[in-house]
Amino acid sequence: MMPYNPGRHWILLIVRAKRETIYFLDSLPGNCTPKQPSSVECGYYVMRFMRDIIMDPSLAFEKKYAKGNQEAPYPQEAIDEVRNEWCKIPHQPTEKG
Question: What is an example of a GO molecular function annotated in this UniProt entry (predicted)?
Fold first, then answer.
């Protein structure tokens, strides 16, 4: 899994080398994933995509995000859960030079 920002918007790339397949999970309208309600949640949606995939022991994300299966936004509680988990991770200070 690789979060990727090609410019002002985060998406998630998933490479399945054995299947020679790359998946693009994008929270903007027109894709088969939960839709972000405005223009600022894309990073949280990418983190939620990763969390959902990792927490599913079957790793059946292809079926979960198949065309038409997921188009409603995540509930606010799902995004808040990711925010809260992220805040609990200890962060290292960066060096400025």
Answer: cysteine-type peptidase activity
